[in-house]
Specification:
single chain; about 280 residues; alpha+beta; Beta-lactamase; six-stranded antiparallel sheet; globular
């Protein structure tokens, strides 16, 4: 699922906060020790977990010092990857175990697990990938839509901790804590300059998104009670834009919950079209 994993890790960090295991305003070095970056000891000590979550670590992709943390947005996957080490250290459990016990199992996600990336892909500085299915991503999206409550009524993450993930940052109002946010006056995209306008101008302003390479997308739209998942290969049509996703699948039926799963469509079922899962009420 490529960089969509970042938004899953953000929810795990929120759960760790609920459990009293993680304070995101503590230095990264307090959790994983000194020397995790190539910055000086003083520069490194100033980088907090919140800086990793908001892509404001002040580091380059080589983890060398570029500037003070918290001052500029730079989409930095190698720096983000340290968040996974922080979580495992804070919980004193392997990432695979806490992902299963804290998130996947309570949310009913049965196809989600961490895997070591092939060597060619690990070179990006993020050696583990999250493997999942469209239906599990839809269940995750429904958990977010339902403000941290799973389909069986169990609370997985508090509303307060979850809401903190979607607080806009001054360095990039289209980004929270490892989640993309629509409806801002300006946007800083990965490897791009700041531009006027929101992330997806044609979509509702309250849309939040987990985005990955190859057009992998999770959209959660509370005002529409809507969850949209797209996985698979990149869209072949150059003219296809996020705001036209629904129009691209005119035959898709909408169900009230993605837990009512099935490929055949029909009342009370989620329709999967080219690995796009759409659920909710318009």
């Amino acid at each position: 699922m490529a960089s969509q994993q970042k938004s899953f890790v953000a929810v795990l960090a929120a759960i760790a906060t609920d459990k009293g295991l993680l304070d995101v305003e503590t230095p990264v070095s307090d959790h994983i020790g000194a020397g995790w970056s190539k910055a000086s000891s003083g520069q490194e000590q100033a980088i907090r977990v919140s800086h990793l979550l908001t892509m404001t670590s002040g580091l380059t992709e080589a983890l060398t010092f570029a500037g003070p943390p918290g001052q500029a947005f730079f989409y930095n996957t190698p720096a983000y990857a340290m968040t996974k080490r922080v979580l495992a250290a804070a919980a004193k459990r392997p990432l695979e175990t806490l992902t299963r016990d804290w998130l996947a199992a309570p949310a009913g996600m049965v196809d989600t697990a961490w895997r070591q990336r092939p060597a060619a892909l690990a070179d990006v500085g993020n050696p583990t990938g999250l493997v999942t299915s469209p239906r599990d991503v839809a269940r995750f999206g429904q958990l977010v839509l339902d403000r941290g409550v799973a389909a069986d009524g169990r609370r997985v993450v508090s509303e307060t901790a979850l809401a903190a993930l979607f607080a806009r940052t001054a360095t990039n109002p289209a980004y929270g804590r490892l989640w993309w946010l629509n409806g801002s006056a300006e946007t800083v995209r990965p490897l791009a300059n700041r531009t006027a306008g929101s992330l997806i101008p044609t979509a509702p302003a309250d849309l939040v998104a987990a985005l990955g390479a190859m057009d992998r997308k999770l959209y959660v739209v509370p005002s529409r009670k809507l969850v949209v998942v797209r996985m698979g290969q990149a869209a072949p049509r150059q003219g296809l834009r996020p705001g036209t996703l629904a129009a691209a699948f005119p035959g898709a039926r909408l169900a009230s919950r993605p837990s009512a799963l099935g490929c055949a469509g029909g009342p009370g079922r989620t329709r999967t079209c080219n690995q796009t899962v759409m659920s909710g009420r318009l």
